[in-house]
Amino acid sequence: MLNLATVVAALFVAVAVVLLVYVRILHGTSYPGGVPRLGKPGVWGYISTALRWTIDAESVILEGRSKFCGRPYTIPTLSGPIFLLSPEYQEMVRSANDDIFNEPMAVSEDLQLPYTLDVHQLQNPYQITVLRTDVNRAITSYIPEILDESILAMDETFKVSKDSRVIDIPVFDTMTHLIARISNRVIVGTGLCRNERFLHAVVRFAEATPLTAAFISWSPSILRPLVYSVLSNILGGKKAPLKYIIPFLNTYLKEREFIDEKPNLVTEFLIKSAPPEETVLGLAVRLLNINFGSIHTSSIFTTQTLFEIALLPPEDVDSIRTEIQEALESEGGWTKGALLKFRKVDSALREVGRFYGLVYFALGRVALIGCDLGDGTSVPPGFRVAIDTKAVHFNPDVYPNPEVCDLFRFSKIRKAESSDSKHGFATIDAHYLPFGAGRHACAGRFFAAMELKIMVAHMLLRYDVSLPPGAISRPKNIIFNGAIVPDPKAHLILTPRR
Ligand code: HEM
Fold it and tell me: Hey, which of 442, 454, 455 would you mutate to test ligand 1's pocket, going by the most ligand atoms within 8 Å of its Cβ?
């Protein structure tokens, strides 16, 4: 039974939360700078639009685009207003230094890094340097290992039962587990990457972190440690995966003393770059950070790509297979050269990035100093700015029929232009923002391109992919707080090819 003291304490906490949120929202409704806000005026106008944003970002952005016709405006969100800028402001944000528009602070806020990982991640982000240097240089040498793990993991995961020739998979969940295992083959090696308990813990962490971070960012600062503690216990936080990574690192650190030729694991590169004061826990959290970057994003991309492939006519799927087989034959197997020739798989992944992507806004940054937007308005210090991604990705002057998800869009352009350097999945340009842009553009995009091309190509060679019986369209995405996630309940059917 609840006693009176507990009820009074709960009421006190509830009133305190409401007051603190109210003060936050007042701050969000009264910033200087002259940039208009979307939605009705006043606190209730702010709250109702922020709630709409949380569950239906698309309609909020479309309204903003038609109402403000390319001029800057703010979108109210439960964690504060975002200054949403049209594509013409992209260069200004992209080229600004971190002392003007700061990226690490935006990432830290989005993922609530001090809680979900630790405060050191962005103070000396050597894990990012390691990805940009050693890991990128090692990508060609990872190809056989990623292929080997893809074959093993898919053989174990996709098994036909006695009374059925087909395999029914919950796609998003399956892809997330596969990505976790296959990526970790080169992050931590064969031992841990096949440990089901570790995989379960790291997948839970990757899935829970964006949700946990959203709830933390909506809470008043004073309550954030409590919110993290409750949610990480319910949804899954860093503790569980660290229980596996720390003992793995302790053993690895002891054994590597006696190995002359060190393996090219991401772990090894991280250890070599760690500053002398780094602890085992610090290294472990950075490995978890890399896991998050890899699992969360790549699983969404593979899932979306498979849904789109399931909608293709069989002759189109066969044309992708023919291209893969010809590339493998001409290059003598799964080599860097062969992967470069998987132009249709590459195009499918790039189109999925254009059409769906991960979020409704790109180049999220925090303004550190007041920034003049050049039209008499400005972004005040401490506020968030971002670029309207879909305004870039659905520009009909750049992408004809932008509302059509055409998996061969980029392979056709590459063929017409006889150019391989532009329009590749991992290539960044002003019209393609799924990996961000500028000095903070995704550090793992070349790794992701290599891994996803191998996984999708291998799946297509081994299986026919189709929608479940009776389904005529692909499942709708789930939109939450500006993020675009495939429906986790949706299934696809795999039929082994003879
Ligand atoms: C399809 C897969 C992926 C997508 C769509 C993606 C997307 C992104 C985006 C949008 C950013 C922010 C860029 C900006 O602020 O301008 C980013 C940053 C980053 N990504 Fe990825 N990513 C993917 C895969 C990966 C993988 C596999 C890894 C690690 C192996 C990774 C590691 C990172 C890191 C470390 C950063 C921070 C870079 C910095 O702040 O300098 N990503 N990614």
Answer: 442
> 488 C-alpha to center of ligand 1: Å?
22
CA angle 241/486/315 to nearest 5° reads: 120
Residuewise pLDDT in 10s, the chain (498 residues):
567 777 776 777 666 666 667 666 766 777 778 899 999 988 889 989 999 999 999 999 999 999 999 999 999 998 899 999 999 999 999 999 999 999 999 999 999 999 999 888 778 899 999 999 999 999 999 999 999 999 999 999 998 777 788 999 999 999 999 999 999 999 999 999 999 999 999 999 999 999 999 999 988 888 899 999 999 999 999 999 999 999 999 999 999 989 888 999 999 999 999 999 999 999 999 999 999 999 989 999 999 999 999 999 999 999 999 999 999 999 999 999 999 999 999 999 999 999 999 999 999 999 999 888 888 889 999 999 999 999 999 999 999 999 999 999 999 998 888 777 789 999 999 999 999 999 999 999 999 999 999 999 999 999 999 999 999 899 999 999 999 999 999 999 999 997
Q: Whose CA is nearest to atom 11 of ligand 1?
A: 442
Residue 442 known to bind ligand? yes
Pocket residues: Cβ below 6 A from ligand 1: 103, 128, 131, 290, 293-294, 297-298, 301, 358, 363, 434-437, 440-445, 447-448
Asked whether 460 and 320 are in contact (CB, 8 A), the reply is: yes
What is the radius of gyration, based on Cα positions, of the chain? Answer: 23
Residues with Cβ within 8 Å of residue 217, at least 6 apart in sequence: 78, 79, 109, 110, 112
Tell me how far apart the alpha carbons of residues 49 and 45 are, in angstroms, rounded to a whole number: 6
Backbone region of residue 438 per phi and psi (left: phi > 0; alpha: psi in -120 to 50; beta: other values): left
Ligand 1 atom closest to the CA of 135, numbered from 1: 30
Residue 241: which of 290, 207, 190, 201 has the closest Cα?
201
Q: Report how far residue 21's alpha carbon sits from residue 37's, in angstroms, rounded to the nearest whole number.
A: 19
